Amino acid sequence: xxxxxxxxxxxxEADKHLLPHITQxxxxxxxxxxxxxxxxxxxxxxxxQLKLAESAEMKADSEYLEKTAxxxxxxxxxxxxxxxxxxxxxxxxxxxxxxxxxxIALASHGHKLxxxxxxxxxxxxxxxxxTIPLLVxxxxxx
Length: 142
Prior knowledge:
Elements lengths: L3 E6 L4 H16 L2 E8 L2 H4 L1 H4 L5 H18 L5 E7 L2 H11 L4 E6 L4 H7 L2 H7 L5 E5 L4
Parallel strand pairs: 1-2, 1-4, 2-3, 4-5
Helix pairs in contact: 5-7
């Protein structure tokens, strides 16, 4: 059913809740993974327009993706990485579609109304702009 899964990573604690679910699913169905992180700091959002150098944050994000992929590859899964720049929901939707993904996996922080207004809701924006199924895993510690 799922051949290619886009895994939207934050380079934070939420990933520790998301990755075990996704790696287990990928093993069960024989899917390949694309680990995606969207850098959205000032340098990332203006990287192309201003011809900026790669920021320390972007370098750290790339290293995180490669380290994470290496660990998952050790379990026998095919894993690619991609560091995108810009608006996370837009990039997630675009890359999932252009990469031929048939599932998008994200972590949910469980913000409620006011939290979503302040922090935004990546999941909400992604789900309204794609027809690709989503798997949402709670990032709250149990």
